[in-house]
Input
Amino acid sequence: MAQEAHEEHGDGFEPRILVFACNWCSYAGADLAGVSRLQMPASCRVIRVMCSARVRPEFVIAALSKGLDGVLVLGCHPGECHYSEGNYFTRRRGLFLKQLLEYVGIEPERFQVRWVSASEGAKFADTVEEVTEQIKALGPNRPRAHS
Amino acid sequence: MPKTRVGVFVCHCGNNIGGVVRVPEVVEFARTLPNVVYAEDNLYTCSEEGLSSIKSQIGEQNLNRVVVASCTPRTHEPLFKEACEEAGLNRYLFEFVNIREHCSWVHAHEPAKATEKAKELVKMGVAKACYLEPQEEFESEVFPAALVIGGGISGMTAALSLAGQGVDVHLVERERELGGLIRRVRTLFPTEQDTAEVLGPLIERVEKHPQITTYLGSEVESVEGFIGDFDVTVASDGAASELKVGTIIVATGAQELKPLELYGYSQLPNVVTQLDFEEKFKRDAEIPRNVVMINCVGARIPERTYCGRFCCTTAIKNAIWLKEQDPDGSVYVLHRDVMAYGVDIEEFYRRAMELGVRFLRYDIDDPPQILGEERAEAVRVQHQLMGREVVLPADLVILTTPLVAQEGSEKVSKMLKVPLGSEGFFLEAHLKLRPVEFSTDGIFVCGSARYPSNISESVSQAYATAAKAAIPIEDGFVRVEAITAYCDERSCSACGNCVEVCPFGAIELQEGRFGTTAHVNVAQCKGCGCCVAACPSGSMQQRGFDDRQLLSMISALAEEMTGGAGSP
Output
């Protein structure tokens, strides 16, 4: 199905992805990617939060139902949360949220949770690249009109 | 409530942003956004000129929200917040938009897309800014003591400097003796002093200082809390000490790379590292006649890309030492490039050459080879300048290896919640602007824990951390960023989810005006927002990151899709 969508929309489709980045790790990782001048697709828009666990499921649903093509939540690696355990909540919540998305008819792959530390500028760039490709393959998000 | 009046300042950052993003177009776009009454571009918004423009426009345009689109809040937010405050605007009515690290620098070849993205980011920032509210910062006391982890040159220097400023210092050293790595080195470059001459007096001063408590053979077991109020457990010989400190300095140092797989090290008895040489040969062993050193062993390779910085100088030092013991002996230094930086060390390098030390460049793709079965007898190397192979007789081969991250760094990193870089050394908040601090307030780093540093560099960094770590202690309090959680008691149903998820035990269910509801103890709240996301009724919110603010950003971004239709 993903393949079909890809063919249908060709290579012209540029996904728009909302990123929530933790202030302590992935936001700094994104900064490092910039400082290192790592080039990446212009698909992502970052919202800084103090912890990935601040991301309410509602935000993800709002973004996807308003037509954004993907939501990426970035947090500290397990065991490295600045607030001890916030990213464990993110991880657990992410699993439930994927099921919920499927239930309401949104491809769960449009929502992803990844871990990027402050020193992983290259991983941030790779993650953006990879997630962009994955969402590109899914094609544009078409939420129902009433959302 | 007065009408929202947003001012937007878009920075060119010289060519850094302006060379990619079409800044005037972003400014034009900003002017069309709801509630924006003023927008301008600046060559450098962080310059005196840019800051005074923000200040004067707050007055002239009667701005009650300021948005700056430039670099990263991680370095420049305090500067702009202060400018707002100086102009009489509450510092929490400021919003930062990152269009450099997150935009122009990473889409350098796509000016059109970068410009579009910058516009959207500005739109999101303005949307959030409209919902910002003034906040008061909470002041929290700082416990007047400091913890220094590591009793090498860096740690001892930092401890003495802090104690000299009147601060009580707890100095924790894993080994049973103070001195760190340098204790195993016999002479120091470029003065060629005996290490004991430098180390001895330093250790004595630390041991005698009434304000320094030293814990030898001890390790920091756990650290809880935040700047001003860290609870530390130090374990020594099965016994534990509980300490309270206001600030922490990480001076855990580094260790020499043992090149186990390289050049017959650990198989051939006369192939040693520079540190082995210091420890064994420079004390009482017989001076070998023909010595070959190989530099850059295990450094500047794909697995370990960095330069050890002073390994070349160590090789030069030991080459000079050998020549001084036996002027007729031969000493070859095989190198890839000689890093003899600075005034003194370049001079030191020249002296080695004058004494007859031969420096010979080798190619990493055709590295030297050790000849000999039971022991190294000679080294074969392709002489790059002569363009032919030479065989150098060797009684001793010394491998020059870089320092690598200290054993146990990961444990310290996790305990303090400070990051390590890709090579396993501690990662500072900003390479240029905050070189001895972590992003986490109240924790600092110096010496080889951060990257291989020689003694004078370690000492300078130790002074820097001691000065930094003393500031909050001297002030007696720190201002805690007003990003804490709060509860709207009117809609709280006292389900207790927030109490359960709070990592800091900052929330309690209490009787109040609206019955039993959640109450946040601001002094304990660290602003993660776990409770906010867990609250089913939306009663729990976080200052500066509340639901309306974040949802408005999402809506602002999503609107672009439909050409501006829809609202938050």
